């Protein structure tokens, strides 16, 4: 048994020996396996599909070249390009550039322009048409200038005199003011002078201005909106109604606006920064501002009254009662045309009499017996314009009544002035037949 086991052990050992000889030795990886060598990079980035695509592209290009050569050989030689003068090319290109679409002027710009025009200048059919034509003109000028700028920007004009741009030179951008160090001292000096002498920038003056805007912006001395709606009225009745309205509006202004103005100047800070020697000039500025506000109110009221008699827009035209009377063998209208004109013109004078007794601030604050009032008198040219316009309007609107009166006088006055009686007496004194008497009657 022992001999057999020894034999087996020897066989196993021989097998192990044989196996050790057949297995390759263990090789350690090289230390620079991670280094990106050129050969390794090329191998890693190689793609067979890319190489095939390059080959295909090369074949396509070579085929296209061969086809192009065949086509060029078959094509007939083209005629030489005509030698146009440079002016012809320029004019043609200019037409092409000018025909390109131009962005029109923005409506927002036009709206801002229209906001600068006073409302009174935009009322009426003719003025609306005029404004529309002006807008069209502005839009057209804008488009033309844009085209001219586009042509000058894109094309180079040949040196030919008769091709001069008929529009003249393009407007240049405005040159800004130079606020460099050279101007700095002058700027500060001027700014200080403005603060010392231009009193309208004083905080109190700004408050006075705001108070005037809030008070007078929606204030009228006379409510003229419902006069025509009342129907036929006596001119004297209208005069009384409007006079009462003007007096009440005046009282309201003096009980609301004026006390607020005075309260502004009873505060200590109202004269802050004003030197004693400059006080009179400061108060003069206040008086001028208040005068302008009152005059503007009166002017708007007069313009509103004149507008009632506008010949083109008769929606607000008052209707006056007029009676055709016969008294003392005389036919006439009551009130007479002259009376009616006097009442209408007298209403303008009544408006101008309002707010003429408003004390200046220093006069009120001093409390002296000598009262100084603000200058609130309407400018002479405004008053004269109102009276002249109303005279023409009254004469125009009474034209129908005048013709009516003349028709009555022409038809019936001979019966009243004794002409008819004389004719009858003369006829009776003469010798006439019965048929002639019948025909006469």
UniProtKB/TrEMBL annotation:
InterPro entries per UniProt: DHC
Organism domain of life: Eukaryota
Gene Ontology MF, one: dynein intermediate chain binding
Transmembrane segments: none
A Gene Ontology BP annotation from the UniProt entry: microtubule-based movement
Gene Ontology cellular component list: dynein complex
Name of the featured protein: Dynein heavy chain 12, axonemal
Species, as recorded: Balaenoptera physalus
Lineage of origin: Eukaryota, Metazoa, Chordata, Craniata, Vertebrata
